[in-house]
Amino acid sequence: MRLVVVGAGGRMGRALVRAVTENPDTVLHAAVEHEASPLLGQDSGGLAGLTPNGIPVTSDALAAFVRAHGVLDFTAPAATSGFAELSAQARLVHVVGTTGLGDADLDRLDAAARHAVIIRSGNFSLGVNMLAALVRRAAASLAADWDIEIVEMHHRMKVDAPSGTALLLGEAAAAGRQVDLRSQSVRARDGHTGMREPGTIGFQALRGGTVVGDHTVIFAGNGERLELRHIAEDRGLFAQGAVKAALWGRGRKPGHFSMDDVLGLTG
Fold this sequence. Notes:
Strand order of the largest sheet: 3-2-1-4-5-6-12
Largest sheet: 7 strands, parallel
Number of strands: 12
Structural class: alpha/beta
Helix content: 25-40%
């Protein structure tokens, strides 16, 4: 499967280049960066710490998508929207790990999914998606007087909060409770906040150091507490999951899918 990595010069982009190169079922078709990137023209394999592969980093996404089968995209919301339109035109598999997407961005992905296979997730690791399934089950099984809090920590360079993974876990908890996350979530507490509103789902975002990803979902009951936790030690696992998703999507009809679909967790 011929895959394009967009944002190929970033930390996640380089991990994706490595994952594509190391998987026997995929080959790197092109590596894309923005027009002002100082990395343009550099060998994408060398940037990723691999043997040079003869594929220079380019800013011409349109040309890069020609004859490709899929795109791996962990960039920024505005960039992802543009890449999704190109994927729709080329009828590609578009794997989206970009976080911080707003309603307008999601609408554009839905539009692209009429012609492309869009696979989007806040996290592509097997462990996190299994955690989400457990959170959904626990939230459905425990009474509403069990308070739910989600605590996440990432490296100091992360620009969005809560993390995409925290929101994925929040959506899982809300689905288990059969409530709307937007109306039930509490994103921050400061000052005299009053008592905790029953049934809400709280989020706390910590930033510092080089933490790849640490997520804990706390179910706090009367006299007892259940904590479900996932620790990511290497962002390479997200890249491997993204490649797995791309392979799953090849040959499928257009649509908007998640890692639940890829891993068969939708039931």
